[in-house]
Amino acid sequence: MRESLRGLGRPAYDEQQIASSLQSIAQADAQLIDDGTYFVAVANGEIVACGGWSKRGKLYTGSAASGGEARLLDPQFEAARIRAFFTLPSWSRKGIGRAILEACENEIAAAGFKRIELMAMLSGGEALYAMNGYEAIERTNIVLEDGTPLGTTVMRKQLPSS
Residue 32 is part of which domain span? Predict the structure, then answer.
């Protein structure tokens, strides 16, 4: 996560935004791990990419604590969340993120969700999701824990009806 932010974040974010992101965002989310909805790609004994999905209210890591973040979402009326995607710079653009995203989408559909939402970083995530059918809904700044604003894009995808 940290190497991904440092290496891939520079074209989109300034040094303060990257430093703050390293503190607020570049951390494993225990809830995704506990829920069994987090994937890692390993090559040569090293984690080269990660990402997951959530059936809970929290939209992204590092969000300020608010009520309802841990609550289970209702698949009939609410969107599942894509969360915490990172790839080592030396492994980016090799289809690994797309493979993890596809695994997430398959599990999301099997869990009965009809829509997916995410908060995309501008440093590559936004492009990955757009190439995979996600629609940009809103450009926004999230405020990291130290008050630093970070540009992001809320994106959404409707799953095909079965």
Answer: 2-158
